[in-house]
Amino acid sequence: MDNGLEVSPLTRLLALNTEISELRTALMRQPVASGRIAELQDDIDLLRRVGLATCWLVGDYELEEEDAEDEDNYA
């Protein structure tokens, strides 16, 4: 794939956060008895999970080593 066509992780996260913000605004404007509330909540939840997965996939995380360090701090 051409590098010029790839979307940077930061750009993707910013786009996801913008979309989540727009969904939250739409959610707050729904009448209490609206059947669309659950759908908007599900969409927000999905986008948050996508954002977390994006962070995890592009990050240089070594969870096992961090967990071991945390255990040493509490011993």
Order of helices and strands: HHH
Instruction: Specify the helix fraction band.
Output: over 70%
* Number of DSSP helical runs: 3
The first-to-last residue Cα distance is: 48 Å
Q: Tell me how many strands there are.
A: 0
| Low-pLDDT segments | none
Biggest sheet details: none
Radius of gyration: 18 Å
Secondary structure category: mainly alpha
- Form type: elongated
**Residue-averaged pLDDT:** 80
Query: How much β-strand is present in the residues?
Result: under 5%
Structure overview:
With 75 residues, the protein is mainly α. It is built from three helices and no strands. The longest helix has 22 residues. The radius of gyration is 18 Å and the shape is elongated. The termini are far apart.
List keywords for this structure.
75 residues; mainly alpha; 3 helices; 72% helix
List the helices and strands and how they pair.
Elements (H helix, E strand, L loop, with lengths): L8 H20 L8 H22 L4 H12 L1
Helix pairs in contact: 1-2
